[in-house]
Amino acid sequence: MALVACGKIDTEITKETPKYVGSVVVENDGPQTFGNVGVQVVFDDASGVMEMKILKVRFASMMPRMDVTIQSVPFVRSVENGVETVAFSGDNIIPFAVGAYQSKYIVTDLEGSIVGNRIEFSLNFGQYPTAYSGVM
Questions:
Q1: Which residues of 57-88 are buried (b: 16+ CB within 10 A; e: fewer)?
Q2: How distant, in Å, are the alpha carbons of 83, 87, 136 from that of 79?
Q3: How far apart are alpha carbons 85 and 115 in whole angstroms?
Q4: Is pLDDT of 6 > 60?
């Protein structure tokens, strides 16, 4: 099993990077939904990987909100009927949050897409199945 813990891409996520806003659903002793969660994405077309930053997310009602970065996610672009689609997936990626890589919450089974101004994805953060849906 290969683990990905780094692999910064040339384009940085900044405050000016466009943001999707939506909800995350976490399976943690039953489904918990948290709204007003942002996601920013930057692409490195030369290497075919993207970086995704999930803003102000939490995975349980009692935990504080935090930013989580998932790096080196492979993606493929396509255009159908004039609408660009980006499909992405990844496995065994160590997320970065709270100033360090969080191997306890390794990202597995990440699958998602961006179609027009909408992003949807699902993944596991460690043992916690998580899904996100947002619009720009």
A1: bbbeeeeeeeebbbbbbebeeeeeeeeeebeb
A2: 5, 11, 19
A3: 5
A4: no
For the chain, give the percent of residues with pLDDT over 90. Answer: 73
Which residues does residue 89 pair with via DSSP β-bridges, in sequence order?
Answer: 111
Q: Which two tokens stand for residue 109?
A: 């089974």
| Distance in angstroms (rounded) separating the CA atoms of residues 116 and 110 | 20
| Higher local confidence (pLDDT), 17 or 52 | 52
User: Tokens 């399976």, residue?
Assistant: 27
* Tokens, residue 105: 């919450």
Give the per-residue pLDDT at 134: 97
Q: What are phi and psi of 103, to 5 degrees?
A: -65, -20
